[in-house]
Amino acid sequence: MTGYPDSVLNLIESFKKLPGIGEKSAERLAFAVITDMEKDDVESLSEDLKKVKNNIKHCKICNHITENEICNICNDKSRDSKTICVVEDPKSVIMFEKLAVYNGKYFVLDNLISPLDKIGPEDINIENLINRIKNEEIDEVILAIKPTIEGETTSLYILKLLEEINISNKSDKKLIVSRIAHGIPLGVDMEYIDSLTLELALQDRKKVS
Amino acid sequence: MTGYPDSVLNLIESFKKLPGIGEKSAERLAFAVITDMEKDDVESLSEDLKKVKNNIKHCKICNHITENEICNICNDKSRDSKTICVVEDPKSVIMFEKLAVYNGKYFVLDNLISPLDKIGPEDINIENLINRIKNEEIDEVILAIKPTIEGETTSLYILKLLEEINISNKSDKKLIVSRIAHGIPLGVDMEYIDSLTLELALQDRKKVS
């Protein structure tokens, strides 16, 4: 006997399925739904949840989340279609788009290679990237994957595949493959930098005079 | 242009209506709905939200939240129906029930008196409590309202009303009115106690030998 009506108990259990929501937070949210929120807002939340789960799929071209067959970014004619930025998940695309520093196209991997989790090279959706490179006019592929063990393994694997394409490519025009720079972020105290980042920053040092 | 499909943007906005959920948390929750959560769990959350908002009403007797006309606690014949504990909101009832230290009935106020917020004695649902005291066989009313300015004002107001009932009551049996004790909680370092609590703890001191 907890004093809660059944429907409130169910709602609390449902809220607890969301990440970072424990018992106390779920109770607080349930009370907000009962007492503080407008009925319209609750209805909207309820509908939006269902719509997102039912309507969101992956773009046939770049694998980013979309409501249509092809996402807005792939459909955008004003963007540079000769550059593909390879990222590890849709969140990365959102982050790039928010910061508005890139105007090319994307390719979203399904996973990063991780033998411990039994995720091999065949599970990362790489064929679609290779097909795009073979069939579209691509000048450059930018690898923008986080520099963890899984990320680096995946980057190296993709790099090797793309080198093979370049070797078997008989034309003069070779595909450029680049990697985003890893190093010290701006505005950060040097004492808080981890050793791997510092090592990468030293390796990738630039001659300035 | 944020890179989000419209339905995801809508869901993020809806999540932000919940208390304590800002932009970043809402985005994280939306991504969890898209990628991590089972479809069934999302459907349940969606349905539970609607059910709670549509079905939860207030008990006709005690004003606690319930799905029926009368709540489970008021319907429970095994409870002591001669004692009413007056609390400020349904959350307090839940808290009492969880700690399982009280076996009487409850009465939930609509508000605490707060002149600054234009909440007067007529807005706290006090008539229903008075009617219960006049019509049921009540031995004791326990005031369990938090000791803030609004809480104390409300407690004093209710105390005065109940004294008037006792004065006009011609029978020998008088209504007992009590207040939960305020003081130092167990297991707390004295240095962290605020002055108001310490003052109440001194005022309510008990002779022990």
Which descriptors would you attach to this protein?
two-stranded antiparallel ribbon, Dna Topoisomerase Vi A Subunit, Chain: A, domain 2, 209 residues, 2 domains, four-stranded parallel β-sheet, homodimer, Helicase, Ruva Protein, domain 3, 45% helix, alpha/beta
Low-confidence runs of chain A (pLDDT<50, min 5 residues)? none
Question: So, CATH architecture of the largest domain in chain A?
Answer: 3-Layer(aba) Sandwich
Q: Using the alpha-carbon principal axes, give the shape of chain A.
A: globular
The radius of gyration computed from the alpha-carbon positions of chain A, rounded to a whole number of angstroms, is 23 Å
Oligomer: homodimer
CATH third-level topology of the largest domain in chain A: Dna Topoisomerase Vi A Subunit, Chain: A, domain 2
Query: What is the C-level CATH assignment of the largest domain in chain A?
Result: Alpha Beta
Q: N-to-C SSE series of chain A? A: HHHEEHEHEHEHEH
* Through-space gap between termini of chain A: 75 Å
Total discrete domains of chain A: 2
Strand order of the largest sheet of chain A: 4-3-5-6
The number of distinct helices of chain A, counting runs of at least 4 residues, comes to: 8
| Average residue-wise pLDDT of chain A | 91
Q: Which percent range fits the helix content of chain A?
A: 40-55%
- Total strand segments of chain A: 6
Coarse structural class of chain A = alpha/beta
- The percent range for strand residues of chain A is 5-15%
Largest interface: A-B, 59 and 60 residues
What do these coordinates show?
The structure is a homodimer of 209-residue chains. The first copy, chain A, has 2 domains: 6-55, Helicase, Ruva Protein, domain 3 (Orthogonal Bundle), CATH 1.10.8; 78-181, 3-Layer(aba) Sandwich (Dna Topoisomerase Vi A Subunit, Chain: A, domain 2), CATH 3.40.1360.10. Helices cover 45% and strands 12% of the residues of chain A. Chain A has helices at 6-15, 23-36, 39-55, 72-75, 90-99, 126-135, 149-168, 195-203; strands spanning 57-58, 65-66, 80-87, 104-108, 140-143, 176-179. In chain A, the strands form 2 sheets. In chain A, strands 4-3-5-6 form a 4-stranded parallel sheet. In chain A, strands 1-2 form a two-stranded antiparallel sheet. In chain A, helix 1 crosses helix 2 (23-36). Chain A is globular and about 75 Å long. The mean pLDDT of chain A is 91.
